[in-house]
Amino acid sequence: MPTVLGQNQYGKAENRVVRIVRDGDTHHIKDLNVSVALSGDMADVHYSGSNAHVLPTDTTKNTVFAFAKKHGIESAEQFGIHLARHFVTSQEPIGRARIRIQEYSWERIETSDGASRFIGAEDVKHSFVRKGQETRTTQITFDGTSWEVVSGLKDLTVLNSTNSEFWGYVKDEYTTLKEAYDRILATDVTACWRYTWGGDEERMPNWERSYAAARKHILQAFAETYSLSLQQTLYQMGSRVINSRPEIDEIRFSLPNNHNFLVDLEPFGLKNDNEVYFAADRPYGLIEGTVLRDGAEQRIPVDMTNL
Q: Considering the entire predicted model, what is its pTM?
């Protein structure tokens, strides 16, 4: 049976680049994991093995490191934009570039006096500790004409120890779950949001400020919502971001319900007044959903939350 080539792409995945900016004695760090995927006029390499249109993946790796020096890393989004534009505009066979970036955050080490100082030493402005919080993500896609920037975060673990209920649900012959009127609500937030930016340099968002604000609104909505379901909390988090950030039109969440079950202490003659729980890691409920600005088109695919 005849066959034809379908969608294809190639590139270098997971290029780990650390960029240090030395501002005198004060240093700043950016730590990225960059994956490059290129597509275009690549039929010949698949059909005949001709590499005439193939930019080596090793070259894409080298470009990542060279651009870290040449352009610096102001933000993950800006760095990805530089790379995507370069690959599409410098190589005629390449019609589309997709840059995926994960950013790992660091913070300065502070000593017991509250400053970045070791006892008996001069000020320390170059010592960092990896933040044990979320990973920042972004994907930049450019086809020579149109841009799409989807940013987000993953593994942002949050917990409310009260102000959450779950009751009134459908029950059948297999239902054993008891209704809860005061429960722990915990999840590991994975979220990605699509920017309205279409390539106008003068209207480019401040990527760092926008990320910080979106993260803040997600956390505030989680903390301030009296939750009757994790779905309700998801919608409130998304609505808070959309209503507060005009540069964002769509946000998608993937929220595992990290179950905490009350432990039965009656066999030991003890009363458990919502104090002792068993934290179960699996199986878990998985709640996913997208919140859109009214009139906006839904474009973030489900698998984007796996960045």
A: 0.88
What DSSP character marks residue 112?
A: T
Is residue 259 annotated as part of the catalytic site, yes or no? yes
Q: Look-up: residue for tokens 């040449």?
A: 70
Distance from C-alpha of 268 to C-alpha of 201, rounded to nearest angstrom: 67
**pLDDT tens per residue across span 16-54:** 999 999 888 888 999 999 999 999 999 999 999 999 999
Catalytic annotation present for 138:
no
Is there a contact between 73 and 208 (Cβ–Cβ < 8 Å)? no
Which pair of structure tokens corresponds to residue 98? 């997709």
Percent of the chain clearing pLDDT 90 (strictly above): 79
Mean pLDDT for 204-233 is 96
The one catalytic residue among 61, 86, 154, 259: 259
**Nearest alpha-carbon partner for 68 in 106, 16, 26:** 16
Report which of 188, 143, 192, 153 is spatially closest to residue 300, judged by C-alpha positions. 192
* Least confident residue range of 55-59, 60-64, 125-129: 125-129
CA 106 to chain centre: 16
Q: Is 290 a catalytic residue?
A: no
Tokens of 52: 């005439």
Catalytic residue selected from 12, 30, 82, 217: 12
Active-site option among 27, 28, 57, 135:
57
